[in-house]
Amino acid sequence: MSTSAITIKRWAARGGHFGLLAAFVAFSAFPFYWMLITTFKETNDLLATANNPFLFNHPPTLEHLRVLVVDTQFVRWLGNTTLVGVSVVAITLLLAVPAGYALARLAGRWGQQMAIGIFLTYLIPPTILFIPFSRIIASLGLQDSLWSLVLVYPSFTVPFCTWLLMGFFKAIPRDIEEAAMMDGYSRFGAFLKVVVPNCSAGILTAVIFAFTLVLQEFVYALTFITSSSQYTVSVGVPTFLVRGDVYFWGSMMGACLIVSVPIAIVFNLFVDRFVAGFTVGAIK
C-alpha cells in the first residue's frame, strides 16, 4: 500500500472518530441547549408552531425566571433540597464507609453473603416500604418535616453505597494497612490516613449517587411533605408550575437548568473517578 493511501486511510479514520465524537457531544448537550433556549424564549415564541423551535424568533426574555423566583418559593426549595442532600450524604458516608470496609476485610463466606444481602435490600421496590415508613414517620411525629426525608432516604443510599465501597476497599491491598500499623498507626489511624485517601474515587461516587437520589426522588417527598415551604425542588416545581392543563414550560425548564448544570459540572470534573468507582474490580 502506498504512502498516500495510508495517509488517506489515517485521515478517514480520524474523521470518522471525530464525527462520532461530535455526534455524541451534540446528543449529550442537546437537552441543556433545549432547556436554555426554552428558559429565555417568550411564551408566544414557544407556542407558535410556525416558529423555529431551535432558535429565538423574538428577543429573549427573563419573564420565566421572574415567575420562577418571585411567584414561587423556588429559592426556598433549593435550600430545602440542599439541606436534605447534605444530611443524607453525611449519614450515608458515616454508615456506608465503615460498613463497606468491615465487609471487605471480613474473611470467609459470611462476608460475601452479608454483602449480597445488603445489596438485595437496595433492590426492594420503594412502594413496598411506603406503608411501613408512613407508620414510622407518624409515630415519630415527623410529618411535614424535612427530617422525615433525612430519615427515609438513607435506607436507599446506604445499602448500595456499602456494596459499592466494599468492592473498592477490596482493591486496596492489606499490606498497605499493615505497613502503616508497623509505623505506629492504630488500625483506625491506618484506616483514616491510608485507606480512606486511596478510596476517594469510591467515596466520591457514593456522594454523587446519594445527592442525585435526593434531587430526583418524588414519591416520598410528595407524601411526607404537605407545606409548600417545606417542599424540595422535585416536588415544588411540578406542583406549582403545572396548573391543570397549563404548563409553564419556560419556568420549568429554567428550574431544570439551574438544578442540573451544577451537577453536570461536578460530574464532568470528576468523571474519571466516578467511572472508576463503578468499575473497580471489573478488570484485573
Automatic annotation (TrEMBL):
The domain of life for this entry's organism is: Bacteria
> Which PANTHER family does this entry report, sorted A to Z?
INNER MEMBRANE ABC TRANSPORTER PERMEASE PROTEIN YCJP, MALTOSE TRANSPORT SYSTEM PERMEASE-RELATED
Q: Does the keyword Membrane apply?
A: yes
The question of whether Cell membrane is a record keyword is answered with yes
Question: SUPFAM superfamilies given for it?
Answer: MetI-like
Instruction: Just give the chief location class.
Output: membrane
Q: Which UniProt keywords apply?
A: Cell membrane, Membrane, Transmembrane, Transmembrane helix, Transport
Gene3D superfamilies according to UniProt: MetI-like
What range(s) does the ABC transmembrane type-1 domain occupy?
Answer: 78-270
Q: How does it sit in the membrane?
A: Multi-pass membrane protein
Give the UniProt subcellular location, in the record's own words: Cell membrane
According to the record, the segments passing through the membrane are: 18-37, 83-104, 116-138, 150-169, 190-215, 246-271
Entry's InterPro entries?
A: BP-dep_ABC_trans_perm, MetI-like, MetI-like_sf
Assigned protein family? Belongs to the binding-protein-dependent transport system permease family.
Any Pfam family from its record, for instance, is BPD_transp_1
Instruction: Quote the protein name from its UniProt record.
Output: ABC transporter permease subunit
